[in-house]
Predict the 3D structure of the following.
Amino acid sequence: MPPRRLDPRTILVQSLRGAPSLVFGIPVVLAWSRGEGIALGSLLIGMSVLVAIALISAWLRWYTFTYQILPGQIVIARGLIKRTRRSIPAERIQDVSIKQGPLSRVIGIAEVRIETGGGEADEGRLVSVSLPEAHRLREVIRSIRVGGTGAEASSEDGTAEAEALLFQMGMPRLLFSGVFNFSLVWIAGIFGALQYLEQVLGYGWDRWREVVGVAEQAIQSQLNGMVLLSVAGFAVALGVLAGVTRTVLQNFGFTLTYDDARFRYRRGLLTRSEVVVAKRQIQLGLVERGAVSGGLGWSALKVQTLGGGDQVSGRQELAPFARSHELAPIIALAGLPPFDRSHLKAVSGWHILRGLIGMVVLPTAILLVVSLFYPIAALLLVAMPVMLGVALLRRRRHRYGLAATSLQVTRGVLVRREWTVPYGNVQSVTVRRGPFQRLVGIATVRIDTAGGSGINGPRVHDIEDARAEALVRDLIQRVEALRTSTDTDPA
Amino acid sequence: MAFEPVPLQPLERGYLRVLRIRSALGWLIALAVAVAVDVFLHWRTDISPGFVVGAVGLFGVVSIIFLVPRRWRRWGYAFTDRELHVAYGWFTRVYTVVPVSRVQHIDVSQGPIERSANVATLILHTAGTENSLVALSGISRQRAEDIRDVIRSRISDAPW
């Protein structure tokens, strides 16, 4: 195949995308005109010059960017003065992801990303090709990809049908899941403001009472309550609406399919994306249960992958809102063992005390001091009973254990998380002991994995030194045993 | 130091000198700032000159003589042919274990001060995110190279 260029419409889209940055040029123009304004003619000339520059540079970028599919590799060349030629070997290609933003959907082009295990996200990105070309590319790349089963050969445009459908979200479930997506923080904030308002209003009503008279006291207190209730209702409705909107935009038409050791999910209302997660890229599995939805039996399955994906956290959601029995087959296909609670061990009782100090005592003290200067800060004390509950429950909800092929950790009071880290994906183990932890003889064990950020990682907090020692020893031993016994280690 | 799954080795004595020189360089910069502050204070108020410089200098001397050796003593490492253990930290103790099989590549580096003390820094890169590189400073160059060679042979033995 000869080198190809991107779709010519890229020029238009790219220069349109650059248009908002022209706003920064306005002060320059104003400064240049010394505040006297510019004649319409010269303004038009100036604008057309700018537009021309934008178009020409977009055209140059389009003209110099080529991609070429060769036997065994894909070559992407770019740059006018400094030419860059990047070749991606076929065996490193996992699959092809296709993404369409709102504008792209209108004019029928798509962004194609050639997924490789690791590296930068932009590594194999073709900003826009026509949609048929995107599908053709995927077919061609799949056919040259070595390591795929030869039996695949789905040359006709029927890939989606050939794949096994694992999980799908219909509209009712989508809307239902959105209801649980409201932000608790937001609600808390609104209620905090409400309480403040009540004080203000209360003072106002007192004044009114003096003016209007005692007779209407009953009506007023009722009115007050009604105002309060309606504001509260409004806050909840707003939170729910925001949650539903966000969920629908993000997960509209969510479909997860599986074929040839690769998951593929499609989702999105305005920005439609199609993302591929190769099984061997999966570093760990994470099941999340929300505070309310989890209690009703709903959970989300995420996997952490090495490179790729369109989610910032490095975690991909394979099923955003599903029942446990729906998740089980997906987890099995991902090569992860099921989460086995029966083998898990509890952490030290000091975990509660540390939570009490860090989440209740210290914040309360700080808030009290701050509220001496800014009384509004005292409103945040409302959150303290919740924090107290979280602190008291956190030990019960935090357990860990070494299963046959994976480390399993569960943690979290409001949002409950269950991590499954196959031993082959443990990169290093770190034990941290702060001053208080050293004093009482406990330690926190952090397990480092590839591809994810540290927050919400599979950490084991506050276990006794001896147990931490045993955990580290056993864990490392298993990592190494796996290393020497098998030769199909997915690094 | 209650947490010690394997017996740890201290760092080279020579590294203490490296740490002291580095610390001294840092304090020299602080001292230069202190001189400027001193001059400024003396110019604007009637604080006698040498007040800030004296405090900073005293702190620096105390730090170089007493605190740096303390920090040095907190470091420990062990290489067991299968994993590297590194421990450090005074306020928060940190103990990291890197299985050799997880190492992506290895660097041995030696700065000018380190070279004069004949110590080197061994840096292990893993695919992880939080600990993508684990650095062990203050071991002899020979030791660093030995560890590197063992790890390298183990990585190239790898069945893939």
About this structure: Chain B touches chain A at residues 2-3, 5, 82-83, 91-99, 101-102, 126-131, 134, 158-160 (CB under 8 Å).
